[in-house]
């Protein structure tokens, strides 16, 4: 099985978010894909199954399959346009829960075309401010719980109590965000319920962050940063029912998985 590791939303290795990309020649059992993802032990592993000009796409974390993963889709777009179909500018992916997704080269960036996931206001969950270790101004709910805080400096300085965050099992993850000081907006993502204390760069959360900040900043095109230790930069556009999430990517590893 052809296998790649790509660092997504970065222009250098050891930055951004690493994703495994496995290229299948034929369907394989779900249990095998889960075992491979666990063995890889990366935040996410994508599995591509070619079908003419379209690729079936699924994403697995070490412990579970997920319905959408941004950085592994960007990594998959990089692998298709760089290795599987060199010179092509566009990759089309068929997914079970999100329909058709697209990745298109734009210079040295890859732009993802995703469905928007708009958040609605909600009450601040009991004890969340203490678990995150900061004052929360507002909270919103989509797939993730979105917590708005005072500033970029607050986002960068946060030291959450992950043991306390694990008590919240009814949300996929927590996105902490603020208006940026030198960039449009910033965020961090904590997914203790899915096995990620902190995800380095979370493309899927920007399906919610982009419409949220577009409305607040009165802008459709924005640049965002995720302030994890590895860090990452995302180029964003609000297209109404869809969002464009872009970033750079670099290949760290090419190889074969022997089964």
Characterize the structure shown.
It is built from 6 helices and 18 strands. It has 259 residues and is an alpha+beta fold. It folds into 2 domains: 2-113 and 246-256, Diaminopimelate Epimerase, Chain A, domain 1 (Roll), CATH 3.10.310; 120-238, Diaminopimelate Epimerase, Chain A, domain 1, CATH 3.10.310. The protein has an 18-stranded mixed β-sheet that branches. The model has no long low-confidence stretch (mean pLDDT 94).
User: Which superfamily, in CATH terms, is the homologous superfamily of the largest domain?
Assistant: Diaminopimelate Epimerase, Chain A, domain 1
Proportion of residues in extended strands: 35-45%
Average pLDDT, all residues = 94
Please state the structural category: alpha+beta
Main beta sheet: strand number and arrangement? 18 strands, mixed
What would the CATH topology of the largest domain be? Diaminopimelate Epimerase, Chain A, domain 1
Quick summary:
The protein is 20% helix and 41% strand.
Q: What are the main properties of this structure?
A:
18-stranded mixed sheet; alpha+beta; 259 residues; 6 helices; globular; 18 strands; Diaminopimelate Epimerase, Chain A, domain 1; 2 domains
């Amino acid at each position: 099985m052809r296998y790649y590791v790509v660092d997504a939303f970065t222009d250098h290795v050891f930055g951004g978010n690493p994703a495994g990309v496995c290229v299948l020649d034929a369907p394989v059992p779900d249990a095998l894909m889960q075992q491979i993802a666990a063995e890889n032990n990366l935040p996410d592993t994508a599995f591509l199954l070619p079908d003419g000009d379209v690729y079936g796409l699924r994403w697995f974390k070490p412990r579970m399959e997920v319905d959408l993963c941004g950085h592994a889709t960007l990594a998959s777009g990089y692998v298709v346009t760089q290795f599987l179909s060199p010179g092509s500018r566009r990759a089309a992916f068929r997914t079970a829960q999100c329909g058709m997704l697209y990745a298109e080269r734009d210079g040295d960036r890859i732009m993802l075309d995703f469905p928007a996931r708009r958040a609605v206001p909600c009450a601040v969950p009991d004890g969340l401010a203490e678990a995150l270790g900061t004052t929360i101004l507002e909270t919103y709910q989509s797939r993730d719980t979105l917590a708005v805080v005072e500033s970029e400096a607050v986002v960068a300085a946060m030291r959450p109590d992950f043991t306390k965050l694990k008590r919240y099992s009814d949300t996929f993850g927590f996105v902490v965000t603020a208006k940026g000081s030198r960039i449009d907006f910033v965020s961090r993502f904590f997914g203790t319920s899915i096995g990620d204390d902190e995800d380095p760069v979370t493309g899927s959360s920007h399906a919610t962050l982009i419409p949220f900040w577009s409305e607040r900043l009165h802008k459709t095109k924005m640049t965002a940063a995720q302030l994890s230790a590895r860090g990452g930069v995302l180029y964003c556009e609000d297209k109404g029912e869809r969002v464009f999430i872009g970033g750079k990517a670099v290949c760290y590893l090419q190889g074969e998985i022997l089964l």
